[in-house]
Amino acid sequence: MIEVRNIRKSFGSLEVLKGIDLDIRKGEVVSIVGPSGAGKTTLLQIMGTLEKPDSGSVRVDGVAMESLSRKEMADFRNRRIGFVFQFHQLLPEFTALENVMIPAYIGHASTSEAKARAQELLDFMGLSDRASHKPNELSGGEKQRVAVARALVNHPSVVFADEPSGSLDTKNKGELHQLFFDLRDRFGQTFVIVTHDDELARLTDRTIHMKDGLITDDKNITL
């Protein structure tokens, strides 16, 4: 699903990634862990096409990212990649259903198609009775589940999550962590998750440890 070869990235004089090689298989739930400043989020952003490496190559779902124009990359990102962040980033003026529909609209889906897909995801996540509520009427856990639904609305091949449970309490963390595996089993997505949560890292199929811009350990669990 993802092939990373000799990725290097610096910001000014600070070398953040120092030659990363990584393969992630389709259907894996992978966690990336390590101390602050290890380069985890930068690697996630490069794999997700939000940031360009200084050198090296990235292939996502068989497509070489460096071969795409800016517009082609934006289209690829919207259709094939989903993102979940620590803070839900829902638009406050729209309902939960409308927030989930937005990427589908950007991808030129019809209103009926976007609504049906968004409702399917909200139903799966136990939020069918919250679809017409705006973000300020939802709990923290509900907001983050809406954000996950939004990431999945275009049937992406891979979902990148950066500290997705960092702002949640223990109960909601557990529910969100289980949701990633339920979604993988139901829809077949690959999940790559940057986290400081040891419990989530233990649950994932594979844990990649980073330190000082390098991968120091890669623990695999057979699916």
Automatic annotation (TrEMBL):
Top-level taxon of the source organism: Bacteria
Stretches assigned to coiled coil: none
Alphabetical UniProt keywords: ATP-binding, Cell membrane, Lipoprotein, Membrane, Nucleotide-binding, Translocase, Transport
GO molecular function: ATP binding; ATP hydrolysis activity; transmembrane transporter activity
Domain spans labelled ABC transporter: 2-223
Stored PROSITE patterns: ABC_TRANSPORTER_1, ABC_TRANSPORTER_2
Annotated Pfam families: ABC_tran
GO terms under biological process: lipoprotein localization to outer membrane; protein localization to outer membrane
Keyword Membrane assigned: yes
GO cellular component: plasma membrane
Name of the molecule in the record: Lipoprotein releasing system, ATP-binding protein
Organism: Paraprevotella clara YIT 11840
Lineage: Bacteria, Pseudomonadati, Bacteroidota, Bacteroidia, Bacteroidales
